[in-house]
Amino acid sequence: MTTSALLERLRALVGDAGLVTDPGQLAGYLSDWRGAYSGSAAAVVRPGTTEEVAEVVRACAEEGVAVVPQGGNTGLCGGAVPDASGRQVVVSLDRMRRVRAVDPVDQTITVEAGVVLQAVQEAAAAEGCLFPLSLGSEGSCTIGGNLSTNAGGTAVLRYGTMRDLTLGLEVVLPDGRVWNGLRGLRKDNTGYDLKQLFIGAEGTLGLVTAAVLKLFPAVRSRATAWVAVGSAQAAVDLFGIVRGLCSDRLTGFEIMSRQSVEFVLRHGSGARDLFGAVHPWYVLVELSDTLPDAGLDGLLEFVLGGAFERGVADDAVVASGSAQVAALRALREGISEAQNFEGPSLKHDVTVPVSSIPAFVERTDAALRAAVPGIRIVAYGHVGDGNLHYNLSKPVHSDDDAFRQRADELARVVYDSTSSFGGSISAEHGLGQSKRDVIADYKDDLELELMRGVKQLLDPRGLMNPGKVLPG
Ligand code: FAD
Ligand code: 2HG
Ligand code: ZN
User: Does residue 296 have a pLDDT over 90?
Assistant: First the structure.
């Protein structure tokens, strides 16, 4: 069958509204959020139901055409972007936006894969519950993308990653069969936990169409502080102090280097520095509780007072009122976007044991500064999870392309250092196309062999998001 015959078959399945071939409309689906990756496609298909997804995938499989699943297209590793051949079909879940059920007794929510994360949070809140996954991209990213990247974000410390938040999945397999694993059971020991294969698979094993997710009791009080610390070691020490005293009430513990904050101060609208002096590192601490008057501000002040006495914290502000909380969060959440104004951002999403963060930072900073004098290291992230976004911006007044050309060499510096601390080169963003080759040097051969075996079992013809995750 020719491409045009396949497109007519797809049009018959999903209707005119479900098939995009117009170049103007295609553009938004063919490159990622940052414009760092772009490709071409025979078409974008937008099925409206699981049955339609299954029919579309079956039609493509019968014609030997590769499928690229896409949600909100906010991923940072090029996983949702097609290759340059123009032969692949992008399957966007952006018409599958139904919340199928919210159950406050079972504490579950069942949603289709195209539902935007923020809409899930809102649907849960409307029933007095909490869906805790929280990302800077939550207004655009979808549950299908969150599942497929095993997204993390700022509340992992308390609630875990998407893997921990998922009870059941519905998946269209690469041959078009539908696996209905939409169970909301808290316990189910009937063999292999198949849903975990699809979580974090970045669309290489199947197309997720719906999920049953865990809910939690709504949070009724919060306290937020912005703390200046003198070193990464002090940030880790502060983490130990806060966690020790606040336990599960500690919901978020985010670190930011001065360089990261400076970018937001320069490019974020209305952002302002909180302290008179400049500090090398900052921490955003968030406590939360289900009680309405849990006295969290007082608790946070008490904890920070102890940290000052021990010389761990240098300055701090406990936010008063929702406007100040939003301003503090914006200083943290604005970093990702602010980097885009400073030339190419070479992203490295690494994780090491929390206790190794200070030595990791010291060693990696030194190696990078030796390699590129004047390099701007934009290190920040979820320090309570040992996860740093160790991003690199070029020295001021230097050439974009010259810096980009050194991306692989500089990634090696960061990844070798990560590896020497027993860390991982992808904490939460995945491998996509950006890290699919380099992972071969940092993952055990046996693990890669087992991963290839799983791929071969589920997708023997390699038609589900080829060129992603597995080394070529
Ligand atoms: P997409 O980008 O569309 O796709 C991501 C991958 O999932 C691709 O490989 C795609 O093929 C696959 N996929 C998408 N939908 C499906 C489906 N239904 N079935 C099978 N495969 C599918 N990530 C974090 O983990 N933590 C953060 O704190 C965080 N913050 C961010 C902040 C900003 C400003 C931005 C731009 C991104 C951030 N991200 C973060 C990265 C990104 O938002 C997440 O990876 C998110 O989970 C991707 O969701 P998406 O719907 O946009 O997926
Ligand atoms: C965050 O924590 C995101 O802000 C994005 O994971 C990180 O842009 C990045 O590198
Ligand atoms: Zn992150």
Answer: yes
